[in-house]
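Folded chain entry —
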Amino acid sequence: MSNTKIITLNVKGINHVIKRRKIISLLKKDRVQIALLQETHLTDSEHLKLKRDWVGQIYYSSFNSKSRGVAILVHKNLPFTLHTIVRDTDGRFILITGLLYGELILLGSVYAPNTFDRSF
């Protein structure tokens, strides 16, 4: 597990197919195994478009197609078994727990407000 490559990216919206392909190509080229994405700006059905190429599992929280949105992409060859998902309805965070190489892990992708928000 010590060689698992994880990256976090604020993608600033990936509605356009070319930008989505560039992001997936970057992840593949850099041999990333887990990607934590923020500011995806995708709806629930659009998030599923990310499941291509090397992506085996995708977990996400959506708000609307113009703002917010987070996702966790897991490489198809990574032996990750999901246990629980915690997500908000505002597209601000997604947390998942599961087994990776026999170890219980927690992964999270968070997109915090860019202004002070006491409730967050």
About this structure: The radius of gyration is 14 Å.
